[in-house]
Amino acid sequence: MDSTSHQSDPLRRARLRWRARRGLLENDLIFERFFSRYEHDLSDDDVGALTRLLELSDNDLMDLLLSRKEPEGDLAGPDVNRILGLLRAV
């Protein structure tokens, strides 16, 4: 695995933004506001948690973003909860 951090590599930041583009407009709007506010403050751990959230389907992700559901199983950790809290706050 490459040891370059997310913050030191503009290409990695661009890829993360691209990966966050979703099929549901509501999700896109939340992620756009999130990146506008937090992109340059994200740690590599934050990026890892965000990547795990982005692996969800659009509808499952929306349920989490809108607090219709809470993270379960492997997603129910402090790292994901932190990023989810930031996403919900934007």
From TrEMBL:
GO terms for cellular component: cytoplasm. GO terms for biological process: succinate metabolic process. It is found in: Cytoplasm. It comes from Trinickia violacea. Belongs to the SdhE FAD assembly factor family. The keyword Ribonucleoprotein does not apply. Pfam families: Sdh5. InterPro entries: SDH, SDH_sf, SdhE_FAD_assembly_factor. The lineage of its organism: Bacteria, Pseudomonadati, Pseudomonadota, Betaproteobacteria, Burkholderiales. The keyword Lyase does not apply. Keywords: Chaperone, Cytoplasm. Gene3D superfamilies: Flavinator of succinate dehydrogenase. This is FAD assembly factor SdhE.
